[in-house]
Amino acid sequence: MKERIKSCILALLVLGSLVESYYLIYRLPGADSAVLSENLYVKTDNMGPEEKVENLLYPDKMIIHMGEGKHTLFYPDSTFYSLIMNRLKGRGFESFQRHSVQDYDWDKIRNENPGIELSFGAGIPVTLLQRVMQLSPDSLFEGESIDRIWIYNIKNDSKAHAIFFSTRGDIIYEAAKADLTVQDVQQHVDFGKNWTPYKTVSGDYYVPDSKISLVQVDMPSGMYTIEQMQSNLFFDVGSTRYIREKNGSEIYTDSKRSLQVDQGKNWMSYSDPAALPAGESTPAKDALEAVEFVNQHGGWNGTYRLEATEEGRQERKVSFQQYYGSYPYGSYPIMSHSSLQYGVINLELQQGTVSSYERSLIYIDESKAVKKVVELSGGADLEYRLSLVSKTSAVKDLTPAYVPEVKEDHLELIPVWKVTLSDGSVLTLN
C-alpha cells in the first residue's frame, strides 16, 4: 500500500515538473507578443511622424483668373493659397449635375470670368476629397476622381458656379448648390491683383511676366541604416539573410519578404509578394491603406502630397510627392532624377494589400538649414526657352520645383523650372 502511495506521489511530482517545464519554455514573459507580432506591429526607429491622409490632400497649384486675360498663380503654403483653401474647406457643395466638357467655352471662361482654379495633378478620388471639402455627392459622382475644381462668376449672374472635372477628361460635374456668393469669389480673386502677373499658353500652362523668387537651401544630411529599415519592415530581424547582387545592390530576405538597398542611389525597395489580400480595392481605399502602411513602417520625413493612384494590370500604384518650401515663398515638389532618387514614396497594392514599398534612405536636418533667395527666369527669356523646347514636343505643364544634389554630408535643394512635355517626359530649366 505504501509503495503504491509513493508511486502516485512520484507520478504527480513528475507530472508537475512537466507542466512547470512547459510554462517555462512556452509561456515566458513576452512569448505571447512574439506569437502575435505579425498582427501587432511594434514601431521602432521611425524615420518621421505619422500623418493623417487629410494633410496629404491639397492642390499642387491655385490659378487665379482675374478677367481681361489676366491671371496669377499661388502655390502651397503661400499666404493667399492657405487663406483661400481654409475658406473653401468650410463651404458646402451639393446637387451635382453631369455635363459634357464640350458644353462650355473654357477659353472664354478663363480669360473673361473672374474665378479660382484648383489643380490636383493626376487626380484625387471624390471619397477622399470629401475629407477636406464639404461635398454631398450622389452615387455617380462619388465614384469619380477629380483633377480640377473651377469656381467662377459670370457677368450679371447672381450665383457662383462650381465645376468639378473628372479625370476621364470628357465629363464635368457642376454643383447646383454651392455655399459661395459672387462676392466671396470676387474677394478671393482680388487677392491676386498685386501678385506676379502670368500669361497662359492655350490654357495648358502659365508663364510669369517677370522673374519669381524661391529659396535655395543647403542642409546637413545622413543615411538611415539597413538595421533601421529591417526593424521597420521585418517581424523577426534575426531570421533575415544577406545576399549581394552583382550590380552592388544588397538584399535582405526572410524567405517571404525582401529588402533591396541601392547604396549608390540611397534607395530602398521592399517587396512582400506573399501579402494576403485585404479584400475590396478602390483608389480611395488603396490610398488610405498606403498612408497607414507608411505610418507603421517608417513614417513621413517631411511634407508630402498624394500625387497619384494609378491602376495597373494587376496592381494599383500609389505615389506621394515630397514638397519643400519656406514662408512666404510657397512649397514646391522635389524632383527625383536618375543619379539621385529622392523626394518620392512609391507603393504598389494588390487587392488592397501593400506588396511593394520604395523610398529614399536620406534624411535631412532642417534646423541647420542655410537658405538664400534666388530667382527663376520669367517673361520673354523664359518664353523663348520654352519655344525652343516645344519644337520637339508640346509643353503641357510648367511649375517651379527643386532638384536635390548630395554634396558629401549635405543635401542641397536647387530651384528650377520643371517642364512636362506632351509625351510624358520631364526636363528642367534653371
TrEMBL record:
Q: Which Pfam families match?
A: YycH
Classification via InterPro entries: YycH, YycH/YycI_2
Alphabetized Gene3D superfamilies for the sequence: YycH protein, domain 2
The UniProt record lists the Regulatory protein YycH domain at 3-421
Q: What is this protein called?
A: Regulatory protein YycH domain-containing protein
Species of origin reads: Paenibacillus odorifer
